[in-house]
Structure formats: C-alpha cells, structure tokens
Amino acid sequence: MEDGAGKGLECQKIMDGKANDNVNDSDKAIIPSCCLKARASNTELEAKCHATVVSGWFSEPESCSGKASKRVYFNNPMWPGEAHSMKVEKILYKDKSEYQEILVFESSTYGKVLVLDGIVQLTEKDECVYQEMITHLPLCSIQSPKTVLVVGGGDGGVLREISRHNTVERIDICEIDKMVIDVSKKFFPELAIGFEDPRVQLHIGDAVEFLRNVPEGKYDAIIVDSSDPVGPAQELVEKPFFETIARALRPGGVLCNMAESMWLHTHLIQDMISICRETFKGSVHYAWANVPTYPSGVIGFVICSTEGPPVDFMHPINPIEKVEGAFKYRRELKFYNSEIHTAAFALPSFVKREVMLLRDSPTPAQQICVS
C-alpha cells in the first residue's frame, strides 16, 4: 500500500459501483479486495441464512437430531477471507425495514447482538467501547459544548453518552431508519435510554438532505455513527458530505467520524484523512480503540476541527473526570477515561508507513514535550 493516495481514488470508484465494468486485468491487481464488493455477495442466500449465520460471521447451529450441522462460512466483501464465530443461542428478532435487514440474537458470550444487513453493529458486552470513544473524544476536546448533532446512531448509545455532558443544551439526531430505533428500544433499553433525554430532538430522514438545510455554524460538534462505507452509506465518506458537515460546524467546531480498522482498510483511512484535510482547516487526526466483536478487533475514528480556536485533541481540555456527575450518569463509564483518550492517538509504525498523511502527525508524547 505504498501508493496509498492513488489506490484511494480507485477504491472510491469501485465502491461507488461505477468502475467495475471498465477495470482491466492489470488494474485489478492494485484494487483492494475489500472493494470488489458486488462480486462476493448472494443476497438471496444470505437472507435465508441470517437466522443462524450473518455475512462475514458464522455459527454452528444444532440439527433436529441434536448433532451439529455443517459449518457454513460467509465472506463479507469488506473483510475478505475472514470469519468470526459467534454462537447463536436464540433469535430474538428478524425483519426487513425499507433500508436494511435487522437481526437481533442472544449470543452465548456477548449478550444480545444487533446485526444490520449481515454486519454486527453492537453487542451488550462491548458496546461501551465504541459508544464512549466516538462521543467523548470530540466532546472532551472542546470547552463547554452546547449543540451536538448525531448522524445515524439509531441504537441510542451515542445519545446516552452525550447526555453525560451537562453543558449540552440541544442534541439533534438524524437517523434514516426508524425501525432501528424501535428495535433498540425493545431489545437494547440500556442504549436506547439516550432517547429519553429531553434535550434530544429526533429527525427521521436522510442525513445528507438534513445537513443541507442546517444553518451555517449551528453545531459545536457532529458525531457520525454511520454504517460501513458500502451501498447507501458510501456517500457519507465522500467529500461533498464532509463539506456540508464543515459548513454546519462553528469555527473551532469538531467532527468525529467512524473510520474503519487500521488492520484492514488503510487505503480507506488514507482517503478519509485526505478529504478531511482538504475540507477542515483546523486539525485532523486518527484515533483507534479495541472492540472484540468488530472485524480485526479494532475500530478507528477520524476526528477533525474547523478553522477557528485551535483544538488539542490529544489532551482533553474538558476532561470527563471534571464534568460534574458525568462519570456515573445513568451508568458508570466502562471504557473511556482521559488516559485512554490520549493513548488512542498513538499510532503503530505500519499505519504511519501505509497512511502517508499520518506520517507527520505528532504523537501524544511529542505534544507533551512541546506544551
């Protein structure tokens, strides 16, 4: 992945589904395999198997005779060649909304699991990592946030975490799929409790359209809790979308956006960092955390600020430990703290090599020396 920038541009075209037919054999060799998504899925077969098997994941169901049936593996094209086993104890819910298939099952190890279109979104056991990090990385990096927008996040977990910040006066959330909200309220009340905060204003609809109509500079922070960048969610990682976000943020406002795994998608991370550096005139960083049930066990975040008052993301100016009542609001924080915050920006050497735009990023230790 030494030519990361060039690969990123080709990756975007493939993921848009606009270039597949015109790619010759010599070009195929340089296209990341995770982006050849359209050739790896069988929608009808996946739909039949979701009761026990989801794309990219497998379980070993019991036959009527009590003997284990044959193991079945499905490759999700975002993570070619990988399968993570999770034993399904009981299917709790399965239906199809206007936008996606929704599955909830009870696992033997991680509690209840929410799956959208065959991709695990959260489990009861480790949801705390993602929800807490994507929320507090941005909100603890600015002084007294007051207005926050959540894009996606229909399970309510990000709302629950924003609610810990007592300076916040308004929380807008734009979720396209109301069924996700309804399912979460029924099966994941410990996350959906976020919707009960009176500061929350729910908007059901397309986030792209919603942001086009938002007044300039309305928000102190925007958190994009979106699906993986395939299909309809692809436009949520493209430059026009980031430009509407930058416009909606005040000077010195911050964005935190889910940004895939550094073990699997450095070419996508390169794309996102490149677009964000062109769009946001403040600072742009990449942070990460461990989530056991996500592919490779890691998830990343791109975190940016607009031009204005400088934002030092690595050293929280608004530490969660000093926000009155925040640490134990509704339930005690399980993962995030100020030490984890700073450590999240420390990048492995291979990431700095493969994501060229991160090579010059200061480490937390270097910033401490400067300050």
CATH architecture term of the largest domain = 3-Layer(aba) Sandwich
Shape: globular
> Which whole number gives the mean pLDDT?
80
Q: State the name of the first-level CATH class of the largest domain.
A: Alpha Beta
Q: Describe the sheet with the most strands.
A: 7 strands, mixed
Count of helix runs:
13
The helix/strand series, from N terminus to C terminus, equals HHHEEEEEEHEHEHHEHEHEHEEHHH
**First and last CA, distance:** 34 Å
CATH T-level fold name of the largest domain:
Rossmann fold
Identify low-pLDDT runs: 1-29, 33-66, 71-75, 365-371
Number of separate domains: 2
EC number: 2.5.1.16
Catalytic activity: S-adenosyl 3-(methylsulfanyl)propylamine + putrescine = S-methyl-5'-thioadenosine + spermidine + H(+)
Protein name: spermidine synthase
Pathway: Amine and polyamine biosynthesis; spermidine biosynthesis; spermidine from putrescine: step 1/1
What does this structure look like?
Keywords: Polyamine biosynthesis, Spermidine biosynthesis, Transferase. InterPro entries: PABS, PABS_CS, SAM-dependent_MTases_sf, Spermi_synthase, Spermi_synthase_euk, Spermidine_synt_N, Spermidine_synt_N_sf. Strand 10 (219-225), helix 9 (239-248) and strand 11 (249-258) form a beta-alpha-beta unit. Mean pLDDT is 80; it is low at 1-29, 33-66, 71-75 and 365-371. Helices cover 29% and strands 21% of the residues. It has 371 residues and is α/β, with parallel strands linked by helices. It has two domains: 88-123, Spermidine Synthase, Chain: A, domain 2 (Roll); 126-358, Vaccinia Virus protein VP39 (Rossmann fold). Helix 1 (4-16) packs across helix 10 (266-279). It is globular, with a radius of gyration of 20 Å.
